[in-house]
Amino acid sequence: MKKHIVLLPGDGIGPEIMESAKAVLNTVANEHNHEFIFHEHAIGGDAIDRYNHPLPEETIHACEAADAVLLGAVGGKKWDSNPGHLRPEKGLLGIRKALGLFANLRPIKGFNSLLHASPLKEDIITGSDILIIRELTGGLYFGTPSERRENGNVVVDTLYYERHEIERIIDKAFQSAMQRKKQLTSVDKANVLESSRMWREIVDEKASVYPEVKVEHLLVDAAAMKLITQPNHFDVIVTENLFGDILSDEASVLTGSLGMLPSASVRTDGVGLYEPVHGSAPDIAGKGIANPFGMILSAAMMLRHSFGLEQEAVEIERAVNETLEQGYHTADLQLKDGKLASTKKITDAVIENLTTKSISNSICNTYV
Ligand code: NAD
Ligand code: IPM
Ligand code: MN
User: Fold this and answer.
1) What domains can you pick out in the chain, each with its CATH number?
2) CA 20 to 30 Å from 263, out of 46, 89, 305, 308?
3) Model confidence pLDDT, tens digit, residues 181-196
């Protein structure tokens, strides 16, 4: 199989973990006789420095023409006081919007060897397997007006959704639930927000189309609490853009580190963008110690969702599992025993595990 993949390394640890994903994908290509052709483009702070724009036109065109896009992370102190249109984050939001990637799938499934890496009690997190589906191109992130008024003393952001935007994300959530345990939790703030009341109405309408799925509504504050006190309660969670952003970082605690979480940003058909959930981690950038697993697992999601390469995706997920079982971990995973390792060393171990066919078939995280 021949595929064109756009790489957007971005800022901070972005380029470091992108190297890991590239090396892993090259190994998969060799092992399975695929040809992955990488095209690297600028986004975020890197693009501001080079092109004075967080999302150059050329980057958008390249992504539109690609079979899939892999993104590292954007952002950093250097650009934090820039005006809104020259912030790295504008590039990330811009590419999601330009490609129409309205659904962000964030699977949260811990690896057995990391059960004790979480500050949460093992018996609470054991067996948890959650898919957060975050609406990605609407809500407070994109509503207008969003501005300061009256000499900067008044401020407004706008939470705006059109019916069809909610319908398509809710449909996606029901479809995902059908492939999993058929339980859907819709998270909103319907006791306060009109947008949430419309969201709830649409969920209830769609529920009759998917009668096999058990649906519940949960207010976002209660959901935040339940996510870490009773994570086993959840299967698929669907929620609007900002709530999904916050809840997914919180849920990463179940896995031991934010550095473990992959994600897929997709639309109904066509190109998908795959990115870890974490940011550019400026506090550790340049040190070669970033956790590459979230990025590597995002590459696996790309193989599965964009290219239909299920076996190859599973092989990566097994190699990650094997690497963790062998004790390799970065410093963000607070493990007492084990082999504290650099990004490069971990990547080499994953590659070694991918090429020696000794990987056990037993346990594996597949991110559906
Ligand atoms: P962050 O996710 O970058 O970091 C939060 C904490 O987690 C830090 O202590 C960091 O060192 C740690 N961490 C995150 N990923 C890690 C990894 N792979 N390995 C080891 N440790 C890891 O969030 P932040 O510090 O709030 O934001 C930093 C910058 O990143 C900001 O500019 C923000 O806007 C941006 N950001 C970008 C994305 C993205 O590009 N998708 C996502 C979130 C934040
Ligand atoms: C994420 C990030 C982004 C978001 C930021 C960097 C704009 O936090 O992907 O979770 O809020 O969507
Ligand atoms: Mn976030």
Assistant:
1) 1-102+271-367 (3.40.718.10), 119-254 (3.40.718.10)
2) 46
3) 999 999 999 999 999 9
Per-residue CA distances from 181 to 188, 229, 235, 359 (Å): 21, 20, 6, 27
- Quote the Cα angle for 92-147-266, to 5°: 25
**Closest atom of ligand 1 relative to the 77 alpha carbon:** 32
> pTM value?
0.96
Task: Write out the H or E segment, with its range, that includes residue 227.
Answer: helix 220-229
Tens-digit pLDDT profile for residues 149-176: 999 999 999 999 999 999 999 999 999 9
Q: Model confidence over 73-86: pLDDT tens digits? A: 999 999 999 999 99
Give, for ligand 2, the residue of 8, 79, 89, 90 to mutate: max count of ligand atoms closer than 8 Å to Cβ: 89
Give the model's pLDDT for residue 263.
98
Q: Is the pLDDT confidence value at 347 over 90?
A: yes
Active-site positions?
Answer: 141, 189, 221, 245, 249
CA–centroid distance, 186 to ligand 1, in Å, is 26
281 lines ligand 1 (CB under 6 A): yes
Question: Which pair of structure tokens corresponds to residue 77?
Answer: 């102190």
92 lines ligand 2 (CB under 6 A): yes
